[in-house]
UniProtKB/TrEMBL annotation:
Protein's GO biological process: positive regulation of DNA-templated transcription
SMART domains: MADS
Region annotation Disordered: where it falls in the sequence: 1-21, 132-158
Protein name (Swiss-Prot/TrEMBL): MADS-box domain-containing protein
Cellular component GO terms, alphabetical: nucleus
Domain MADS-box: 18-78
Keyword list, A-Z: DNA-binding, Nucleus, Transcription, Transcription regulation
Subcellular location: Nucleus
One Pfam entry name: SRF-TF
Superkingdom of origin organism: Eukaryota
GO molecular-function terms, A-Z: DNA-binding transcription factor activity, RNA polymerase II-specific; protein dimerization activity; RNA polymerase II cis-regulatory region sequence-specific DNA binding
Amino acid sequence: MAMESSLVATAKKKGTSQGKQKIPIKKIEDRALRRVVLNKLRKDFFSMAAKLCTTTGARIDIIVFSPSGRLFTFGGPSVAAALRAFLLDSLRRPTEPEEVLRRVGAKEALQRRLEKLRTLAIARAHELARAREEAEAASKTTDVDPVTATPDDIPARD
């Protein structure tokens, strides 16, 4: 126990080792240091992604753009194949809940409009049938030919 505490005390006194330190989450102003940190964290990030893929069978694709515009990718079988699959899938079905609701709302509105048009078409068909019946009844009661008659030939209704 005494030996353990003396080792801890010695390690605390030395303080010369930089070792693995926690990096504060804020923008690094020095461009050169920023480049170094990006490369180190990128390698660690890609390494962790590879471990996650191996252990769980998950498919991970990562795209990183550096501040200087360089592109770094991680993925399998290729990032291009993953992007193509993602874009095709997103075209097939909406991913945003608002988009789903908008499409459902539009479909319901179209269904309501279709039902109104059907009702109007049925009503119009009934009106035409009644008008045809009236015309046939009127032609039977008069001696006027419905094909060749002019408005003056048709007797007025009471």
